[in-house]
Design goal:
Largest sheet: 4 strands, antiparallel
Number of strands: 9
Number of helices: 4
Shape: globular
Mean pLDDT: 92
Order of helices and strands: EHEEEEHEEEEHH
Strand order of the largest sheet: 1-5-2-9
Low-confidence stretches: none
Radius of gyration: 18 Å
Structural class: alpha+beta
Helix content: 10-25%
Length: 187
């Protein structure tokens, strides 16, 4: 139709009001406790309003045989200013690297792909969060895991996640350079 909008950042914006910072963890090797602890090294989660839940493809069973366990997870952190999500998400990703939670994956063409417990690509207003459960046909079924809701204050991202200082930027560059060293023969 002539009035159709594409799902691009050109047509979607974050609002200048409260919102939700969605942290997507796709690392299947990371337990819930390890994910929450890594984020807690940067943010005081015990004081914040947030929700934890597994990704939609988690906990699939074929009768009594578990096919998928925890395949990914989300933290939804309530924040004061949704318009700050792209900047705050980038800073959180960088802070996780500074805390020792960064690493590289190597793409099929040999590019370095920086990773951390959170996916840095989700902080765009045009991104959708596929959070519903999986549609399964018997004998497959998805067994629910309770969503966990935590009370607290909305996060002030500007105060809690300020832009990196010059010193932090230099330290991050050194950490990222050193993280590439083990892959020198692969790229």
């Amino acid at each position: 139709p002539d009035n159709a909008l594409t799902r691009t950042n050109e047509h979607f914006r974050w609002g200048n009001h409260g919102g939700v910072l969605m942290l997507d963890c796709d690392n299947e090797a990371l337990s819930k406790a390890d994910f929450v602890n890594a984020i807690s090294e940067v943010l005081q989660l015990d004081k914040l309003a947030y929700i934890w839940r597994p990704s939609s493809s988690s906990y699939i069973y074929n009768d009594n045989e578990q096919i998928n366990g925890l395949t990914g997870q989300r933290l939804y952190i309530f924040i004061q200013d949704a318009n700050d999500i792209p900047r705050a998400g980038k800073v959180l990703f960088e802070q996780l690297w500074l805390k020792g939670h960064g690493y590289y994956d190597i793409s099929t063409v040999g590019s370095y792909l920086p990773r951390s417990p959170i996916d840095a690509a989700v902080f765009q207003p045009s991104r959708l969060d596929f959070a519903a459960g999986s549609y399964c046909i018997l004998p497959l079924e998805q067994r629910p895991v309770a969503t966990e809701c935590h009370t607290g204050q909305p996060l002030d991202t500007k105060a809690t996640l300020p832009d990196l200082t010059t010193k932090q930027k230099k330290a991050l560059a050194e950490i990222m350079k050193n993280a590439k060293a083990p892959y020198a023969d692969e790229t």
